[in-house]
Amino acid sequence: MQALRTTLMACAVAAALLACTPQTPVTSSTSIVNKEYAVTPAAMTVKTGIVTAELTDMKVTERVEKDTGRIDTPAKLTAKLKLQNSSSDQTVRLISGKMVYIDTQGNPIKLEEARTEPAIRFTSGSGSQLDPAQDVSQTIEVDFPAEALKAQKLKEIRLDLVYAPTAYRQETANIGVSIGRGAEPLAAVAK
């Protein structure tokens, strides 16, 4: 009976030690690669009211397994966005932006269920307020619908901007003064 207990105890200790031993990670022989899609044109400039928007370096990238073609990370649109306030007398407070993908029929292409709305956020770090003639740039990365990757499906990309213009005024005030007419000079200050 003692031998059985000793054997069971040894097995329990061995099992506990094996469970605590770090396992060597299983490395996959499948490599993940970036699959890039060119956006033509890769740059565009549009005017939306008093704000001019310039998108450059546009491309769509998805990460796929090299051997199987399985999508590891769904497609994203990346670009550099430059916004300029073209007004001479209004400040613009940038609130938000959104990319809308339009198909050949003129309808928005919906994102897949688990994807995030392609919203653009403006923070104080990227300049949420633009004075007249001022500009700001930031890199954007937003989800891109898989349906739009199909040939002859995407017709255009629409940039929706929400901003609040406020009147910008610069005033001048003249203050009438005189020096030395009947007044005593100020006492000299010793240095």
Please provide a written account of the structure.
With 191 residues, the protein is mostly beta strands. The protein has one domain (32-167): Immunoglobulin-like, CATH 2.60.40. Helix content is 10%, strand content 44%. It has one helix and nine strands, in the order H-E-E-E-E-E-E-E-E-E. Strands 1, 2, 3, 4 and 8 form a five-stranded antiparallel beta sheet that branches. A hairpin with a 2-residue loop joins strand 2 (44-48) and strand 3 (51-65). The longest helix is centred in the N-terminal third of the chain and has 19 residues, at 2-20. The chain is elongated, with a radius of gyration of 32 Å. Mean pLDDT is 81; it is low at 1-26.
List the helices and strands and how they pair.
Layout: H1 2-20, E1 32-38, E2 44-48, E3 51-65, E4 71-85, E5 90-103, E6 119-121, E7 129-130, E8 135-143, E9 154-167
Antiparallel strand pairs: 1-3, 2-3, 3-4, 4-8, 5-6, 5-7, 5-9
**What percent of the residues sit in helical stretches (DSSP H or I)?**
under 10%
- What is the count of DSSP helices, taking H or I runs of 4+ residues? 1
**Second-tier CATH architecture:** Sandwich
Overall structural class, as computed from helix and strand content, comes to: mainly beta
The rounded Rg comes to 32 Å
